[in-house]
Amino acid sequence: MVFFSRKIENYVSDISAKASSGSMAAVCENVRKNGYPLRIGVVCDKFQFSWPLYGVSLSTGRLTVGAPIYAPHLVEFNVDSPASIVFSEKTSVVSRWRNLVIETEPYWKTGQTLKFIAEGLEFSPLSSSLEDQKLQETGGSQTADKKTIQQNVEDQASLQDIPDVVAQPLESKGVSQKITAEFLRFDLEHEKNHFSGNMTFDGFDVSPIFISSFVDVPKIDGNLKWILNDVSLLSEKGGENWRQHLYGKSGILKHGELAFHTGGGVHISGPFSFDDEGYLTATFELVCIQHVKFLETLKHLFPEEADNFKALFFILSTLPKNADGAPVLPLTVSHGWVKLGFLKLGRLAPL
Question: Which InterPro entries match (predicted)?
């Protein structure tokens, strides 16, 4: 038992040490053992992380890292709400949840896996720039110094020249409308330079995206499964944006499903790739489910395209059908330019 508990402690220590050696800073305040007798692990009162190279900092509440005694290779992270995420000191997101669990198998020899499960999730992007906001020290202190790190993480590498962790206060003013999801799950696997994933969500509310159009946006349920070929998202190359790791890469969307709570939805699948400038090229097959309700939803969301959707409704009856009798539409993307059937929908920005 003590042996496995020590393994978990060493794992947390290794994460912090690797972070420090990679121009990152990680702080786990007041680290201590917990979980006996059925689990082995450690807990800290607050977790903070900073990666200046990419302009990202994170601050969360209580963090528990552990594993069941019958499967010590399966490491589980339980994170208490809320969390504050800051990007390049200009954009901040405050997130809250009812339950959040992250599972990984760091010692699994055949590949790396990651599972992220959240219930009652909400994101509140700040509407104003962080450049005009003062960073404050409140309660548990948003700035953790190097001395704290040395006291709470055993066997950690030298912290010299590692910047302090800075996190945005969790209770900030100017918060816009919330993006919420009743349930969200990510399953990710990286094996032999292939990166596969599966994302499932229920009750996804994207109303803030349409905040200026005064439309009532229905909630969405969905499921996405994909594979990216020859991809390493976390390269050792310093100063390179993580999106650039996708340049020149290809993959396949094995299955995509979106269902509106008002009825109707789509299934989508097909190959895709990114060119050397980050533009998407894809040949997708889009299947309309309950296409009458689906088109009504689209007309409601994009009233300026109502006439085009009306014309599309008549054309759907002449399109090929799948085994269930649902019409199939080609959705093509060429160097970022998107075309649905005969409708030109504009150009997507590069990564």
Answer: DUF2125
